[in-house]
Amino acid sequence: MSETTATAPARREKLPKRKRGRPDSIRLLLNNALATAGLVVFVLIVLVAVAAPLLPLPDPDATAPANRLLRPLAEGHLLGTDALGRDILSRLIWGTQVSLAVGVSATLIAAFFGSLIGLVAGYAGGRIDTLLMRGIDMVMAFPYILLALAIVAVLGPGLLNALYAIAVVNIPFFARNIRGIALGLSRREFVDAARLSGKSNAQILFIEVLPNVLPVIIITMSTTIGWMILETAGLSFLGLGAQPPQADLGSMLGEGRKILFTAPHVSVIPGVMIFALVMSINLLGDGVRDVLDPRLKSGALTRPVARTAVMRDQVPGGIEPDAEAVLDVRDLKTEFRFGGDVFKAVGGVDMKVGQGECLGIVGESGSGKSVSAMSIMGLVPTPPGRITGGVALLEGEDLFAASDERIRQLRGSAVSHVFQDPLSTLHPLFTVGDQLVEAIQAHAPLSGSAARKKAADLLKTVRIPNPAERLKSYPHELSGGMRQRVCMAMALAHDARVIIADEPTTALDVTVQAQVLSLLDTLREERNAGILFITHDFGVVSAICDRVAVMYAGQFVETGTTEEILTSPAHPYTAKLIDCVPVLGEPERRLDAIGGRPPVVNDLPVGCAFADRCPRAGDDCRAAPIPLTEFGEGRTVRCIHPLNAEAEHG
Amino acid sequence: MPAGPLEPRGKSTVTAYIAKRLLAAVPVLFGLTIIVFLIMAMIPGDPAIAILGSYATPENVERLNRQLGLDQPLFQQYFIWVGNLLQGDLGRSYTLNRPVLDEVMERFSATLILAGTALILCSVFGLIAGVVSAVRQFSWVDKAVTFIVLIGISVPSFWLGLLLILVFAVNLQWFPASGMFAIYGGGDLPDLLHHLFLPAITLAVVATGVIARLTRTAMLEVLRQDYIRTARAKGLTERRVIYRHAFKAAMVTVIPVIGIQAGFVLGGAVYIETVFQWPGIGSMLVKAISTRDLLLVQGGVLVVAAAYVLFNLAADVAQTVLDPRLR
C-alpha cells in the first residue's frame, strides 16, 4: 500500500476506489494467510490423530450405560458421551485417525493407478490411448457417488470396500490430467534423445517422463484428497463404510443421526471435525494453486476496468491547443505495473493529427506504438496499465480529464477504432449484424429496423457484397479481409473525427491489405477524418500516411513527412526499419534484419535506447538522454549522429 | 479462408446438431448397460440362492438358474438382459415383491423433483455469485463470495442437512424435518415446496460453490479478450459490456460444467434423501444395497446414469445453441 501512495502523490483525478489497481501482493498475502491457517489446522489435526495412542484418552469403545448422552463439558468427558456412554472426544480423535488414513490411502491408490493409466495412455498414444481413455470416459459417464455405491453394492459394505470404491471413482481425474501432460512430454526432444540412446519404453516412462508429471500428480492429489475424505465419510454415514465397532467420522455422524433431536452434539461434533479437516485441506490446496498458477502471476486473471486509470503527477496547464489538429497529444506517458516492476511503455510522446490527415506510427512490436494509440481513449487494460502523464486533446477537450461517461460517449462516435486481428476483435457469438446495430444504437436513438438498414448501408460502404444477407453471418463464417471490412464499417457507424487504426492490415494477406488500405484512404478523403495509423511495416506507411513517427522503446526517435523519411531517414533505426520492408517479388528477403533486441522498458538505459544495436553509436550516445531535436522543416530526430545530415542541412 | 456460400443458417443446423448428438448418446447408453451388467455379474454368490434362500434344494436352484438364463454364457445373458430391458422388464425386487421398473420410476420422479430444483438453484446462485465476484474483483464482496464458496465445497452435505434440520425444523419449526408430503392433509404443490425447501438447498450448496468458482474465472478470462475491448471501443456502457458480451461468452465455458454438476447433484441426492427421508432413488439404493436387493440396485443405477447422460446431452445442446462455431 505504501508503494502506491508514494508513487502517486498528487492525484488530481477523483477515481472510484477499485480503479486504483491494488498491488497483487496484498491479494497474495491474503491467500497466503488463509493457506497458512489451513496448513496450521491441518497439521494440528494430523498430529493429534497420529498421537492418539499416546494421549491420555479413555478407551473409545468402552461403553458405560450409566453415563450415556452426557452433554459436552461434562465432568471427565470434555465433549460428552454418545448413546452407549462412550467418550466422544476419544472416539473423535480415533475416528479422525481412521478417516485420515482411509482418505490418504484412497488418494494414493487413485493417484497410483490413475497416473499409471495416464502415463501409459499419453506416452503410447494411438490405439492404446484411445482404448484407455474410452474406458475412462465410460467410468466418468456415471455420476461419481453413484458409481462408488455400485462398487460397494458388489463388494459389500465395509470400510476397506468403501476405500476401494472411492479410489476407483477418482482414478479418472488423475488419468485425464496426467495423460494430457504425458502426451505433450512424449513429443519433446529429450524423450526422443532417450529413445535414440536405446532406453526401453519403461525406462523412458519412469526415468524421463514421470519426474516431469510429478508436480501435476501432487496438485491433483491436493485437490482430490478433500473430496475423498468427504466421500468415504459419506459412505460410512450411509452405513456402507465403517462397520461397528470400528468407527470413522462418517459412521459416528451416522450413528448420531438417529438421536439427532434428543442429543444433537453426538452428530454435530464429528461433522465439525470433517468440515475442519476438509476446509483446511482446501484452503491449503487453493493457496498452493494460486501461487503456482501462471495466469495469476501474469495478471491474466485480473479484471480490466472500463477505462485506463489516469494518474498524472501533475495536470499540464496552459497548453495552447493546436487549432488545426483534431487530435493533439502532448507528452503522453503510459506505464504497466507488475508487482514492483514498472514498465514505461510510453515515455513522453507528442502526436498531432489534422483533419483528413493520416499520421503513421511505426515501430517493432513492443515499441509502445499500440499502447500510445490505445491510451488516447483509455483502452489500455487497467490493471496493469495506467496513464501517468500528458494530455490528449480532442478538438481542444482533454480526454484524460473527461468523465468515464464522456469517454464512453466519445468512443465509437468522435473517435473510432479498427484493431489488428479481426477474428479475435469481433465477438464470436453475435452476428455481424447484431454487432453493427449495437455500435449504431450506442450513439444514435434509432429503431431496430432503421439501425439494421443503416448497418446494411455501412457494409455496402465498405464494399461487402450482398450486405443484407451478410448481416446474418457470424464472424467465423467470413474471410479475414471481409471481417476487417466489417470492423471498418463499425468504425464508420458515426461521423468519427479520428479513426485509430491499430495494425489493421497485419493479419491480412498482401492483396487484401491493399484493398483495405485503399478503402481506408477513400474514406478519409470522403469523410475528412483524421487517421492515426499504427504499423510495423513501412510498405504500408508509404501507401497511406502523410506523416510518420518512428517509435523505439516508448519514444519517438524520428518524425517527418512520409516522403522525407522514406527517401532520407535520419535516425539509424529508421534506416534499418526501411531496409526491412518486403519488396514484392522477393519473398525470401529477410525481414528481421536488425541485430539484437529492443531494451526492456522497465530497465531503460540513460542514453540512447538504440545505442546497443546501432552501428554509429559512440560513448556520447550512452552518456545522457538524447532530446528530440528539430531536423529541418517540420522534422525531428532523436539522434546526435543522424544520417543524411548533409542532405538536410545543405 | 474464402467466404463460404450463403447457406441457410439458424434453426435447421441446430436441429441437425441435436439429432446428431442424440444419436451419439446411444452408444454411451449402450456402454452404460454393459458396465452395469458386468458390475452385477461380478457379484460373488449365486443369485438363485439369494432369491430362494439358503435352504433351497439344488434342483430348485438349477431350475431357477435356467429360468433366469444364468446357465448361458455371459454375453448371451447380457443380450437376454438387454432384451428384457428394452421391453421395460428390469426384473422383480425380492424385498419389495414388485417389478423393479415400477419402483424405480416412482422413486426417480421424486429424485428428479429434488435434484432438478437443486440444479436450478445452484445454477442461478452460482452464476450470480460468480459474476458479481468477477465484476467486483478484490472487493469485500469478492472475498466474501470466495470464502463462502470454499466453505460450501468443504462442508459435508449430510452434516449440513442435519444442522438445517436442527435449526429450521426442530428449533424454529419453519420447515418439516423429513418426507416429501405431510402425512395428513398434504399432497398439493405448496406442501411439496414446503418439504422441498431444506433438502433442495442442502443438495445445491456444493454445486453452487463449484459453479460460482468457475463462473468467476471464466468471466475474468473473457474480460481480457480483444472483443471486449472492441465492445468498449464502440462506446457501449460497461453494464452492456459485462452482462451481454462477457457473460454470454463466459456461459460457453460454464454450461458444460453445469452438466457435470448434474452428476454430482444426482449422486449427492443419495445423502440428502437419506437425511431428509425423501422417497427418492438415492434412499432406495442405500436400502437396497444393505438388503442386497441387487436387481433393484441395478435398475436404480441404470436409470440415474441414463438421466446423467441426458443432462449432459442437454448441456451440450445448450452450448451449441449459444456458440455458432460449434455447429
* Strand order in the largest sheet of chain A: 7-8-9-4-10-11-13-12
Q: What is the number of beta strands of chain B?
A: 2
Tally of helical runs of chain B = 12
If you compute it from the alpha carbons, what radius of gyration of chain A comes out, rounded to the nearest whole angstrom? Answer: 34 Å
Round the mean pLDDT of chain B to the nearest integer and report it: 83
Q: In CATH's first tier, which class of the domain at 42-49 and 95-292 in chain A applies?
A: Mainly Alpha
For the sheet with most strands of chain A, the description reads:
8 strands, mixed
Which spans of chain B of ≥5 residues are poorly predicted at pLDDT below 50?
1-9
Q: What is the CATH homology-level superfamily of the domain at 42-49 and 95-292 in chain A?
A: MetI-like
Query: Percentage of helical residues of chain B?
Result: over 70%
Measure the end-to-end span of chain A.
57 Å
Give the SSE order of chain B as H and E letters.
HHHHEEHHHHHHHH
Average pLDDT across residues of chain A?
81
Main sheet: strands, sense, barrel of chain B: 2 strands, antiparallel
Strand content of chain B is: under 5%
Major sheet: arrangement of strands of chain B: 1-2
| Helical/strand content category of chain B | mainly alpha
Shape of chain B: globular
Give the CATH architecture of the domain at 42-49 and 95-292 in chain A: Orthogonal Bundle
Counting DSSP H or I runs of 4 or more residues, the number of helices of chain A is 24
> Largest contact between protein chains?
A-B, 89 and 89 residues
What does this protein structure show overall?
Chain A has 650 residues and is α/β, with parallel strands linked by helices. Chain A is 49% helix and 12% strand. Chain B contains twelve helices and two strands; from the N terminus they run H-H-H-H-E-E-H-H-H-H-H-H-H-H. Chain B is globular, with a radius of gyration of 24 Å. In chain B, helix 8 packs across helix 10. Mean pLDDT of chain B is 83; it is low at 1-9. Classes of the chains: A alpha/beta (650), B mainly alpha (327).
